Every structure is written in C-alpha cells, then in structure tokens.
Amino acid sequence: MQVATAESVASWTGFFRDLKARGLNQVYLVTSDAHLGIQHAIGEILPNAPWQQCRTHFSKNLSGLVSKT
Question: What total number of domains does the chain contain?
C-alpha cells in the first residue's frame, strides 16, 4: 500500500517501481479502471504485463452513456 495525492503517471510509476524494488518479478495481468495514468505506468514499468479494464468500471461507464429508459 502507498499513499499518493493524485492518480497521476508519476504516482503510479512510483508505485510500480516500489513493488518491483520489493521483489515483484512477473506480472501476468493488470486489471484496473481506465485511468490513463495507470495505463501509462504499466506500459513503462511492466511492459510485458497486459492490461484490461475492470468489468465493474466498464459497466458503470457504459451505463452513464445510455438512457435510463
């Protein structure tokens, strides 16, 4: 766990660097919301790890785009 003041590229990059420094070796998949900061950090620090959007976030974002009726 790490405290950050924003979900920025710098915050996520620092978070993933810290995990790697503490022994994280292989990451097979990262699932998160679609925040660009985390996606960029994954590409930079964990280049072999695929990323996918969380289904809950995807559904919530999709339901915000369609009519309630």
Answer: 1
